[in-house]
Amino acid sequence: MALLSINDPARARETTYTGPALLGLGFRPFYLLAAAFAAVSVPAWLASYYGFVTAPAIGLAWHMHEMVFGFVVAVVVGFLYTAARNWTGLWTPRGAHLGALAALWIAGRAAMLWAPAPLAALVDLAFLPLAAWPLYRVMRRADNRRNLFLVGLLGLLALANAAFHASAAGLLGMSAVRPIHAAIMIVVVIEAAIGGRVIPHFTANSVPGTAPVINPRLDRLALALAALAALAWIGAAPALVGVPLSLAAAAAQAWRLAGWKPMCTLRQPLLWVLHLSYAWIPAGFVLLALAQAGLAPLSAAVHVLAVGALGGLIVGMITRTALGHTGRPLKAGGSETAMYLMIQLGVLARLGAALATGSLREPLLLTAGALWSATFLLYAAVYAPRLFAARPDGREG
After folding, report:
1. Can you tell me the distance from the alpha carbon of 352 to that of 369, in angstroms, rounded to the nearest whole number?
2. CA distances from 45 to 164, 165, 187, 249 (A)
3. Dist. CA 356–CA 360, nearest whole Å
4. CA angle, 177 as apex, 130 and 303 as ends, to 5°?
5. What is the pTM of this model?
6. What's the pLDDT tens digit per position in 53-80?
7. Measured between alpha carbons, how far is 189 from 195 in angstroms, rounded to an integer?
8. 3-17, 99-113, 158-172: which range is least confident on average?
């Protein structure tokens, strides 16, 4: 069975790498760090929220910030480093350079817990620009203009992170939550852009006779509407503007997904997890429209996008890319299927907690947290030996 090619065929320039396997390519350290962090940070937040531990630093702002600028950003950087190696045939950071970036990411997580706020901001803010720069250099050297916009989106994430820290310090007259919501929508746009390339491609390659519909005009429309709906929401536009834009974005994303033939993937967990997780994007925009109209809690929309779309697609991609780039067949085993089921059940529980009133909310919230943590704990347990080990076929990756 063919192994993963994230996008364009690699124009490989073989060089010898003799360092630790864990630092051989971006996905290895960052997927493992992200999974381990996801597994422990949500239980830590819930323990603080319910008063089981006294941890003033672990508040709501920490939880929201670290899920996006800690967990999600690590996965995005690891994925893009790995993808850019395929797209350009040029090396993204590896060895000592990659190790230094991973250490900086770890320092950022530690600083957000224990350092004074100005120092925490300085350390945390350093990561994204230093991670984006080598990606930009590789894209420019290869004249890979098609994917340069992804570097720009990393830059927008860095600006959103700066706005969070400035707001938390009282330097901006806005809630610190708004930049985090902006960052979530930036990542949704990243996933919509990449998902539109890889999900139909994976489906066509893995399900014989399937012909997913790829409509470039619809793709551009769907991405534009998603960006406009996000801007309207983040910019606090009137509901008369935000609601129709969110509904239009939902319709375009659903239409796009329907053309990728999701019902043909039901027997292949590596595929259905991507289709099902992508479906949370239009669902999230519908809930966002309802929230802007005052008909649903905003938390429902935010968590459907953050846990369902971001979390689900992350689990689907960090298993798939790790299998392919560690030289293993692209086939989900029992562990992968369990991860996929748990993350989907987790988003249902979190949505239920957002919509519930009375005594149902707390058990649903705890269930969602437990399922999230178990998903990424299982990933770390199963994939850590693979990520630390060299490929059995001796190839790079």
Report:
1. 13
2. 19, 19, 22, 32
3. 6
4. 95
5. 0.92
6. 888 889 999 999 999 999 999 999 999 9
7. 10
8. 3-17
